[in-house]
Specification:
There is one protein chain. Helices cover 15% and strands 41% of the residues. The protein is mainly β and 211 residues long.
Length: 211
Amino acid sequence: MKNLFFAILFLLLALSCKAQSPILSLDTYEHQIPDNAYVKDLNNELNKFAGTWIFSQNNITFTITLQKQEQTFNGDYYEDYIIGEYAYLINTLEIINTLSSLQEANATNNSQTNENIIVYLNIRNIGGRYLENGQDSGCNDCSENERVLELYLVDPDRKYLSTSLILRYLVNENNPEKMTATIRARTGVAVPIDGFTSPRVPYGTYLMEKQ
């Protein structure tokens, strides 16, 4: 009976600590996030990016599939997060295709005992949750208060590169929905001798339609 009492007390204390953990917005900087906090998509801004998006032009097809993960634990704190994979084809020739990795991730997530808390293993080739002012990110035609989503993009064969994927949802385009996807290099990357200086998906901005 005594052991049961202490077990219940421990559980109540754990739940109390979790309940008292702060809830922060998606634009919170890493160094501002305490352990066990929850960086939450308070206004459901990530929802509009979830889905499959395609750019198709001049025999080039660029596909991105994105999924929203809620209350993902990264080892330090919880966060709402976008994960994704992509494919890039020229004249039906597959230059890169990581889309199957997302299906593998879903199988792993479905096997978790607690479906509301998914351990993020940092193995996705697209990921992130940081929302920033569009003009601050270099979007010259963004409105003053418009926000864009900054993700990372990894080329599995060129992991030494540090690449950003900036997504801008176009609010006035809804039939079909559209967004721009801008791929650009981050600064301070050490490229190996004879290494590639760009990922296999070329840097630039792609106008993508939701499928």
